[in-house]
Structure prediction request, 185 residues.
Amino acid sequence: MTDTTTPGRIVATAGAVDLLRRLRAAHGPLMMHQSGGCCDGSAPMCYPAGEFIVGDRDVLVGLLDLRLGVGEVRAGLPPDADAVPVWISGPQFEVWKHTQLVLDVVPGRGSGFSLEAPEGMRFLSRARAFAPAEIDALADGDLVTGEGWASGSRPVPPTEPQVVAEAADACPVPARGGNAPAIDS
Prediction:
């Protein structure tokens, strides 16, 4: 029997979730959009819910559940106040659909348009390529587009943990080969 678990298209580090919780306390419900370039490069942008107009062909990468801690999974979708929908444009999704988006946070100045800008932190997208079996499992799932969301479509709740302690837990760096030089710090 094969594993039929479908991987989530998004995970977040504990630091990113903590920052999202602080931003929610200050600004109310949130949403994110993975920017596809232009002014802020390819940064994940955080907005008050509804402040960014989601296009009909934008794709919902997932709903981050702010109630979760590292390694936790809850049945069902989070209530709106605890859900952070993460969107990406349809054409950009086509390029990234083979990867799991890993939302992280690092010190630095965020985009002037994103809510974390004054916090001294910025959101950062990392990615992990899906294994062939994961790509096959994802091919069977329905994507929620902006048009579908407006009509009431919602994603299937994740069955795997959405929050990891560190980015390396979601996208580990391969072990250094035996002939690679050691790096002293």
Summary: The two ends are 47 Å apart (CA to CA). The mean pLDDT is 85. The first strand starts at residue 10 and ends at 13. The beta strands are 10-13, 30-34, 44-48, 59-65, 83-88, 99-107, 121-129, 163-164.
